[in-house]
Amino acid sequence: MIEVTAKLLHGHVFLSGETVECSISFSHPPLASHRVSQSHTDVFESLAWAAAQIHCQCFTDSKIQKDTDRASLQPTFADTALGATSQESGHIEIATKPKILFCDLRLSPGQTKTYIYREKVPSDSPPSYRGQLVKYSYKIIIGTQRVNSPVKTLRIPIRVLPLCEVSLTDAGALCNETTEELAPANPFLEIRQKETSLDISLQTLQNITARRNPNFYMISNTWGKVARFCLFKPAYKLGEDIIGTFDFTVATVNCVQVSVSLQCEEETTIDVNKEKSKQVRIITFSKHHEVCLGYKYTQLILPIPLHVTPAFSTRLVTLKWRLHFEFVTSTSKDLESPRLEQSGWQAPSEIPIETMVWSLPIRLYSTTPIHVAQGVQGNTVHKLVIR
Fold first, then answer.
1. Exposed, middle or buried, 340 (CB in 10 Å: 0-12/13-18/19+)?
2. pLDDT per position as a tens digit, 125-184
3. Prediction pTM value
4. Topology (CATH level 3) of domain 214-342+349-365
5. Which residues of the chain have pLDDT under 50?
6. Residues 387/1, Cβ–Cβ less than 8 Å
7. Which CATH topology does 2-162+371-386 take?
8. Which residues, 6+ apart, have CB-to-CB distance to 297 below 8 Å?
9. Which of 9, 36, 172, 202 is the most exposed place for a label (fewest CB within 10 A)?
């Protein structure tokens, strides 16, 4: 019996272009049945080979699947023993080249061999996403085999976050600076390590999502002004709070209640009878609801969950984020402000109302993988027993 233990050294969340490091140990636990009388060859356990790779599985509904099935599997996965053992539905979107860990491994009782698997997540790969129309799932596949035995695989799920195109573009521009290289060399100064493109991208992402000047929006309907909404910034990271304020002092129409939802818009384009058609799904994650009748001011605090996927776009799907507002208004004279200020005022049993909706696009970006890993629990140790 051989136990295979795989441990992710830096958590289970990674950014596109980041290097994944996984420690893979093969051990032969000693058993009580081992005796001195056994032959030398019976004591050892052996494996013919072991390999590892990262691949992204894409799952779609039946209509989109007809179009995506035309794409063949990548040769780096389909032409290997790991590809032959894959029985999952969908198709391979991204597959890295398999790396051989060893060939012909022999372990004596109590012996353990450990290997470090390093692989860079392709920068152009889609992020991990579980939508209603399209799903992207990432795994590290570790395969091994005994002689004349079937291939055994250990699948380690990981999560990949996208890096915004703006940050990657700015990072590339910053990396081309050569001011320090042209400066005179000083042998007494410590050599300063250059920042990687990934570090510069995270810094640029921090600058994009920093607090900006407030944006004001006057919300009106056919009867007049409903409220003035203030959003302090249009770009956010995962785990942040969306904060805004409502000002009803400028209103000419009574607002009874307001609801704000954080929604993502999932859009795909498929070919039906050689004609392209769009499918759109709206998914709501968090909601803020408040009865604001008689209020002059109120605020909005809407948390962004860590498990959602930031905005991205691939050949199959485009994901956008927005704030969806629902205002319930009334033009009834029983709700005029002088009546509300009276101490003995009672609300009417019935009032005529109208509901108006409004959507405000926002930009949602990734955050540091450590922040996501702390908020979303994931298993970093996986085991496989080969008998």
1. middle
2. 999 999 998 999 999 999 999 988 999 999 999 999 998 655 444 444 444 444 444 556
3. 0.81
4. Immunoglobulin-like (2.60.40)
5. 37, 69-76, 167-181
6. yes
7. Immunoglobulin-like (2.60.40)
8. 245, 246, 247, 248, 249
9. 36
